[in-house]
Amino acid sequence: MKLDPSIIRALSLDPAATTVATHGSSGFNATAKISTRLQDGKQKQFFMKTAPGKDAETMFRGEHASLNAIHHAVPSLCPASLATGVSDDGAAFLVTDFLDMSSRSSAGGSSRGHSGMSLAAKLAKLHITPAPIPNEHSKPMFGFPETTCCGDTAQPNEYMESWADFYAKHRLLAILDKCERNNGKNAEFRSLVEKTVHRVVPRLIGDDHLNNGQRVTPVVVHGDLWSGNKGKGQIGVEGPIEDVVFDPSAVYGHNEYELGIMHMFGGFGKAFFDEYHSICPKTPPVEEYQDRVSLYEL
Q1: What is the per-residue pLDDT across 106-131, written as a single tens digit (0 to 9) for each?
Q2: 20 to 30 Å CA-CA from 82: which of 31, 38, 60, 115?
Q3: CA of 133: how far to CAs of 44, 80, 219, 259, 275, in Å?
């Protein structure tokens, strides 16, 4: 297997000291491990995804920004993304720090790693860290600087000041529009989605209602956090074994938006959520928490 020269350039590697081999598997792209010797003699590994087409370019740009948004807030929670672009042979690529999830790295050791934090504590820290202020804005906004993909579904993320408006327009109505493009229109289905947008969304997460009318602060949300996108692993060659997440589809949003997929697909028990909410409390009105999580499952 040969490493494309554009990736050599993007990572500033020595071709004579670098090898690449197929590693792992994915339903959307080819995956590989890059091994190299740095100028100081140390060994370093990277993880690479490649795939053809414009859709792959969009997916990788979104994942690159998502990983780095999470890594910036909680460095031990996921690997950093180091490069994305289009190779000389025309394929889109994404290169990240190597995440070793082999049985050797993940079988033993404390689940809290050297960070001293469980996955619940890391996710809570992520969700209490305010999002950065986007360029050309004066305060944190709901949205994200790149289009992201949940599976193969592209999600628009243009910034909006209102979380309720963002969720209605860029999640519920965006998915409805894609469904109609792919499968044709269905009047009953459209009516149900529009009723949700115009009645349920304002009732549960409207700006004058959620958090007692005090708008929630945008935070980084992984966006596709289910049991298949978490595990234990070692970031880099010498890093500790940590609870980690991967394959994000991030957005700066309401932290409880994360919990919709987590509850829907399972893999996170009562003890996890008890620890999480001891650090990141449920948003008022607390008695509507489960209704909001159900809304975010849509």
Answers
A1: 444 445 666 679 999 999 999 999 99
A2: 115
A3: 33, 20, 11, 24, 29
Strand partners, 129: none
Residue with tokens 């229109």: 185
What span, in angstroms and rounded, lies between the C-alpha atoms of 254 and 232?
26
Task: Sort residue 119 into left (φ over 0), alpha (ψ -120 to 50) or beta.
Answer: alpha
The contacts of residue 230 (CB under 8 Å, 6+ apart) are 119, 243, 244, 245, 246, 267
- What CA–CA distance (Å, rounded) separates 207 from 155? 22
What stretches of 12-112 show up as alpha helix (H) in DSSP? 54-73, 103-106
* pLDDT one-digit tens code per residue, 55-93: 999 999 999 999 999 999 999 999 999 999 999 999 999
φ, ψ for residue 119, nearest 5 deg:
-60, -40
Q: Positive or negative CA dihedral for 241, 245, 247, 248?
A: negative
Q: What is the pLDDT of residue 107?
A: 46
